[in-house]
Amino acid sequence: MRDLKKVPTAQTAKAKRVNRNVRSPSSRNWRKLISRCTRGIMFTACAGLVTVGAVLLMDLVMNSEHFQVQTITIQGNHRLSDQDVIDLSDIRHGVSTFDLDLESIGEKIAENDWIHSARIMRKLPQGIIVDITERQACYIINLEYLYYVDRDGEIFKVLRDGDALDYPLVTGLDRQQLLDHPEVSRQRLHQVAKMLKDLQRREVFNVANVAQIDINPQEGFVLYSDPFGVPIHVGNQHFSEKIDRLEQIFLDIEKRLPVLQYIDLNVPDKVIVK
């Protein structure tokens, strides 16, 4: 009788042949793991070298004499001198242009009453450009103290000794009204600025003919002529059209200003002179 344990079956022989061609799973996983770790270490090392190199290069550039401020160019200034603006900026020659906080410098310059805004730019390698927008006084308003108001109707500066007074004076609005009714007050201030802007472009009756403007809650705006202070009632609306009518006869009535009581422009298509 055969010993079945010693006689390999066909399936057993085939399995042995297949198994001889299969690698150990444990050996294959370790090789992949070592390969991946090696690549990761090399990538990290390269990235570190690049970062260190970039930092060193940036430090070299930022501390190089080639990027120290040598020229400061001021643009947009008319009232303030170049040196006035440089002093406000506190920028000094020889400082690294990359050490300057441009936004902070612009805000510091704009603290001056006459400067509406300031923009600071680098002009590499050694230049700084300061581009400012100055305020333009349009009239003076009396609010216990005298203040300049710009062309947008914004109060921006209290008058001090030496400040020019050759602007129309606006009355009829007080500090308490500004505090209690800020929106209405700002609208009034803007209307005055708009009226004066219209007068600046005229030749017959213009800003030079206006000494004062009164803001009257009941009657609207009242202009007072320069000279002689004759009241000119213009109301609250259609200012440009009313001044057009006044200009048509102003040369004829200008010589009579000393004896006039008032001029009323509120009647449509007419100029009432008394």
Overall number of domains: 2
Helix count, per DSSP? 7
Order of helices and strands: HHEHHEEEEEEHHEEEHEE
Spatial order of the strands forming the largest sheet: 6-5-4-7-8-9-10-11-12
> At CATH's second level, what is the architecture of the largest domain?
3-Layer(aba) Sandwich
What can you tell me about this protein's structure?
The relative contact order is 0.06. Helices cover 38% and strands 23% of the residues. With 274 residues, it is an alpha/beta fold. The chain contains seven helices and twelve strands. It has helices spanning 10-19, 25-62, 82-89, 102-109, 175-180, 182-200, 239-253, and strands at 71-75, 115-123, 127-134, 137-143, 145-150, 155-158, 169-171, 210-216, 220-225, 231-235, 263-264, 272-273. A hairpin with a 1-residue loop joins strand 4 and strand 5.
In short:
With 274 residues, the chain is of the alpha/beta class. It has helices at residues 10-19, 25-62, 82-89, 102-109, 175-180, 182-200, 239-253; strands at 71-75, 115-123, 127-134, 137-143, 145-150, 155-158, 169-171, 210-216, 220-225, 231-235, 263-264, 272-273. The strands form two sheets. It has a nine-stranded mixed β-sheet with strand order 6-5-4-7-8-9-10-11-12, with helices on one face.
Question: What characteristics describe this protein?
Answer:
alpha/beta; Ubiquitin-like (UB roll); Rossmann fold; 7 helices; 12 strands
How do the strands and helices of this protein lay out in sequence?
Blueprint: H1 10-19, H2 25-62, E1 71-75, H3 82-89, H4 102-109, E2 115-123, E3 127-134, E4 137-143, E5 145-150, E6 155-158, E7 169-171, H5 175-180, H6 182-200, E8 210-216, E9 220-225, E10 231-235, H7 239-253, E11 263-264, E12 272-273
Parallel strand pairs: 1-3, 4-7, 7-8, 10-11
Antiparallel strand pairs: 2-3, 4-5, 5-6, 8-9, 9-10, 11-12
